[in-house]
């Protein structure tokens, strides 16, 4: 107990319960010198009270007229001096002016990790779904002398409180209502999800018991937390100048955890009365209204960053962004920029709008050219006002990314290409030179600055509208960065430019995928604490409440493909990795490196693939080894020994018909990939197992995929075949998992902690148990696509087993819609019909609205926090809304690198908002599944 004579200044007394083992000690470490300035070696040591694991410590602060904030954590120090820092966010004490000697008694809680409540503390809930409408600001800790009473402050983290609810403190003393919740102390929500309150308590009221209670302000009902009564102990000081501060940690009186429904729409697909050939930033407001009508509380978008290279169809690919920060001009609503458009110009825009809106799909090149033409015209009207009133402030906020982007665009247009390596000037640029050139070209860059200002303003108006209406916006963070982008030009040191990112063969593509993006140089990024990633995520947090991380497995390991030699993804390898050494291979009996690393090609294989052309092909593309007169062996000629060379040769060969050229490419690529091992391109003498080593290729048919066995593997002797099969499984699913998890940890920490966005990982693909565990422990939401099981032995993902911290999404932009999927393969739909829907009648060839609704219900009734559906999957449960064919509902075909991203939803959002039958039915599904 602190005596009256011991007080001189402001004494802060920390009192906390920490479970420790013999030899451990507890310290308080924080942001002020008295707490070691975040150095645990200089932190204040606590005293063990030998009473139920309680520890205490005092520090002395000077009196002050200034406000001040102390942040701190508790640290457990082991007997070997290793440190275990308290998890989750810092404790925070906010002081007002204190000019009297006093004791501030902190009754604290050691923070524990709670992934669910951490999720509720993110911007999805705090900033949108549960955002407070009229927040009451918290009071700082101040001292007011009152001999008979003790000023008592409370603080707790209660994130799961709906907008029409408040938190009260109810207890067994008059100050807390004597257990009557109606008279309990109402807490302030100005720092939501932190709730605070303060009140003068009679000294005779101590110690007291209390609980936190949530009140529904609409119906007057109360929800009590389900735990033993909390206890505030008697004062630690006999001094009259005492402040008591009770700081609790996570609480959650709401028993039923939040579950929500969301809609999944590319921005370009939206259609409203105001659309101009493509969805616009302002159309999101109508999308929010549609969500409120049908009970959805989230809108998931595809990337909306600028992709402009040529203004052609290739730019329609939203993941091929030329900037990770700049927004795409094509989504700007021309008619919403200013109300001072000349009548003639407005008439021209309206006429073009009418023409474009007649198209069933997005005509990207034409719409982009139209938007840019009129943006230039409107800029001439707005230029002077922008330069005078908005430019400096906008540049101050965004200049770190806007200046490099604007200069890149200017040089792109001047040199007619984004391939900056070909630019005659500024093909490389330093930060100092970039700043210098931007100053010199300020007037030329003004239009680009203005376009970004308009795009940013329009999107943020929609963001604010969504927030106000309690609908969260979910963005999409692409795993890759365009090789011809601002980032690769201005920050080349952050990328492995000689490699391409992609994916091994999966349900999306049997040959794997080569996205063409350079991979990240994580070691270079880590040198400055991942500053580029922090900036990128901070920018996204300005736009979204929640984030889908595309291919989150790439943060553990990325599938790297040599840029100079490969077209497909098949011949890639994971990076980082633990490839085989020659000694390891010899120990496995895999000593014949030429046989295992060179394409296995024999005469009978050429005959199987090329039939009557085998003789011509053998002479044109191969050298005979002359080992076997009846069934000879072959090597590729040097001019055809990789995919890039083959592709170039076939494109230059004008003697071939288009059909034969495609067939030759298909078969020659198969032969190039007919290997067991791949030598590491950067470390000679080390070898990777080829992915899907048992397969030659897969052909899709209406009856289901047909798998052709690899002849390179199949024609080994039986002992080696079995050894390769076993070692391949270990290589991809066991050998490297620990390395991947270790390397991913700092990256996942940045993803999660750089902002308050809720992070959801797209974790489909070749995944190990160790990676699944790491994602679960990180509190990053995983993704469940019912048709794509994460367990190799199972055909479908069991919706009964979806974890709470996950997203259920039966279709994505990379898959067919539910209707399209049903019609793809007979074997798959029959398997689902009989074994998942438990039907016993004949399986239909097309998906009826009733059965489609059953599939939606399985996902919406899952335990996942979020059930998110493509808009077309929702509305096509109504026969009258099936305006498009099943194939026309598809957004992307990942196996086609030249796919045109042009999907347009067939109905205007205003039509959906007015459709009472649709909205009442979907709303009932949402209510029945408790997702509202």
From TrEMBL:
GO cellular component, one term: cytoplasm
Sections of the chain in a coiled coil: none
Keywords, comma-separated and alphabetical: Carbohydrate metabolism, Cytoplasm, Glycosyltransferase, Transferase
EC identifiers of the protein: 2.4.1.25
GO BP: carbohydrate metabolic process
Domain CBM20 residues, every copy: 4-114, 144-251
Catalytic activity reported: Transfers a segment of a (1->4)-alpha-D-glucan to a new position in an acceptor, which may be glucose or a (1->4)-alpha-D-glucan
Segments traversing the membrane: none
Enzyme's top EC category: transferase
Pfam families named among the record's database cross-references: CBM_20, Glyco_hydro_77
Subcellular location as annotated: Cytoplasm
InterPro entries: Carb-bd-like_fold, CBM20, CBM20_DPE2_2, GH, Glyco_hydro_77, Ig-like_fold
Any one GO MF annotation of this record: starch binding
Family in the record: Belongs to the disproportionating enzyme family.
Designated name of the protein: 4-alpha-glucanotransferase
